[in-house]
Specification:
By secondary structure, this protein is an alpha+beta fold. It contains three helices and six strands; from the N terminus they run H-H-E-E-H-E-E-E-E. It has helices at 6-25, 28-34, 53-62, and strands spanning 42-44, 49-51, 71-80, 84-93, 96-107, 110-120. Strands 2-1-6-5-4-3 form a six-stranded mixed beta sheet. Strand 3 (71-80) and strand 4 form a beta hairpin. Helix 1 runs antiparallel to helix 2.
């Protein structure tokens, strides 16, 4: 297996930037599209455990429509072969430090997040 193929890293960096921009402007259509449309996708958040695409989309729809302004710190992206990648992000929002991880898979419809975790540090 080849780790960190330059062309795969470039693809994931573009998708991650797309995700981040959608998060900042609260573009729910793009955020929902970037998650795998499957009951096995999951997102473990700061106060919620979401299973399945419908659960994640429902959570986003029920949140206030305010944009999620945050300052990004360290970002680490690693790809594994041509079809799997992982992102780790440290961020700060509202004076609190947090972290986010995402597992991305290349599926027939494109790169999709299949698992995500967001947490805040105490």
């Amino acid at each position: 297996m080849q780790i960190d193929l330059p062309e795969v890293l470039a693809e994931i960096k573009r998708e991650f930037a797309r995700y981040e921009q959608a998060l900042i402007v609260n573009d729910m259509a793009t955020l929902n599209a970037l998650f795998w449309l499957d009951d096995r996708v999951l997102r473990l958040g700061t106060a919620e455990n979401l299973y399945g695409h419908a659960g994640i989309a429902g959570f986003r729809a029920a949140r206030p429509a305010a944009a999620a302004q945050r300052q990004i710190g360290r970002v680490q992206i690693t790809s594994y072969g041509r079809d799997c990648a992982h992102t780790c992000v440290e961020f700060e929002r509202d004076g609190r430090a947090g972290r986010q991880t995402q597992t991305w898979l290349r599926l027939p419809e494109g790169w999709r997040i299949v698992a995500a975790h967001v947490s805040l540090l105490s």
